[in-house]
Design a protein that fits this description.
The chain has eight helices and 18 strands. The protein is an alpha+beta fold. The strands form five sheets. Strands 12, 13, 14, 15, 16 and 17 form a six-stranded antiparallel sheet that branches. It is elongated, with a radius of gyration of 25 Å. The protein starts with a strand and ends with a strand. 27% of the residues are buried.
Length: 378
């Protein structure tokens, strides 16, 4: 045993050492999931493993609540300790895995680094996994609070993947947090430590209390994004002010194909991006990328809904100004030209959404979303 930078390590000597790794959960399975070439099983191994499994149940890491952050407190580029529940784990590519974790809070909105014209050939991702999750999996995830995607540094999956079991709370120590395409992700590195945490742990109970408090609120504000407080921007007007807001995960997992919703979102991208192309032959045809702390979706502005949204058919200069405010752009001059390389921070807006389908034979597979009953008032 040796120390390195204040931490204690078991050092493996290829010439004389041997090891075996066992599942830490209490069970009757005494077969190791990984062994060194020189390892030889002994009759006493089962007794030692049983003792260790009983000991680990009540073992607590010596660390106070101040050592662990909520997901709403993370910042880009920092290495942070968090306590999260594993809500899903899947293989997203050959030998590449991703964990989905949650603590009931909302991650802060990230600035959007891309230029508007990039949306045509390099659109912002709707999610970090290569393919969208199947609907049956999506419906098992929480609808309130960010479900954070967590990836593995190359080569460490085999060492910690078996520890990420769906439904368990885990303490993650020294996780790197990054923003990719405006979406948050965590990275497990060789310096990350993981530990199962019982439901009775004070940190788990605190996160559950925060989440339960949000759920129990009966006001119209119950499911608003945390960072939209104290109030959303007033650049939109909607025709259904008394309807409770829902999250985009609520929208995605709603039990019926067609429905109407009220949401508080940010518009992070638009296609086409040039205002003079927003409508053709008097008909608006625009795709907006909407996001909140729970999801991203495409929503379309079409025909009369686009006319209401923009207040008719204003000039290109007026449309440019409206677009710039909606997308959180920083203008370099009075003509609305975007500052080269400037990150965008779109405002939170209220909007009405409705879902519909394109193909009767495949209603869920052809489900789309449109903005309606919403007016931009800038």
């Amino acid at each position: 045993m040796k120390t390195h930078h204040g931490d204690l390590f078991a050092v493996f000597n290829k010439k004389i050492s041997s090891f075996a790794l066992y599942d830490g959960k209490d069970s009757d399975n005494f077969l190791p999931y990984q062994v060194s070439p020189k390892f030889q099983r002994r009759d006493l191994d089962a007794k030692f493993i049983t003792g260790l499994r009983k000991w680990v149940v009540n073992f607590q890491i010596d660390g106070g609540s101040d050592d662990f952050s909520l997901l709403r407190e993370i910042k880009e580029g920092e290495r942070v300790n968090v306590v999260c529940k594993i809500v899903h784990v899947c293989e997203v590519d050959k030998d590449k895995w991703m964990a989905f974790v949650w603590d009931g809070t909302d991650t802060r909105p990230a600035c959007i680094p891309t230029r508007l014209e990039d949306e045509k050939d390099h659109p912002l991702p709707l999610h970090l996994e290569p393919l969208p999750l199947p609907r049956d999996v999506l419906c098992t995830l929480p609808q309130l609070g960010t479900v954070l995607r967590v990836i593995f540094s190359q080569g460490i999956e085999k060492h910690c993947l078996h520890l990420l079991k769906t439904g368990y709370w885990v303490k993650f120590v020294n996780v790197l947090f990054e923003v990719e395409g405006g979406l948050w992700r965590g990275v497990l590195t060789p310096f990350t430590k993981l530990r199962y945490t019982p439901n009775e742990d004070s940190l788990v109970l605190e996160r559950q209390r925060i989440y339960d408090l949000r759920l129990s609120s009966r006001s119209l504000l119950a499911r608003l994004p945390f960072f939209s407080f104290p109030c959303t921007s007033r650049i939109t007007e909607v025709g259904h002010k008394d309807v409770p807001c829902v999250t985009l995960m609520d929208v995605l997992t709603y039990s019926e194909v067609t429905a109407k919703f009220m949401c508080v979102v940010r518009v992070v991208a638009v296609l086409p991006w040039q205002p003079e192309d927003f409508y053709f032959c008097g008909t608006y045809r625009i795709r907006l990328t909407l996001e909140d702390p729970t999801a991203r979706i495409y929503a379309y502005l079409y025909a009369e809904d686009g006319e209401k949204f923009f207040g008719g058919y204003p000039t290109a200069d007026v449309l440019t100004r409206k677009r710039n405010v909606l997308l959180g752009m920083t203008a370099a001059d009075d003509n609305g030209k975007e500052t080269e390389g400037a990150a965008r921070n779109p405002p939170w807006i209220h909007c009405c959404l409705k879902s519909y389908y394109l193909t009767k034979s495949d209603p869920w597979g052809s489900r789309h979303y449109r903005i309606f009953g919403t007016k931009l008032v800038v």
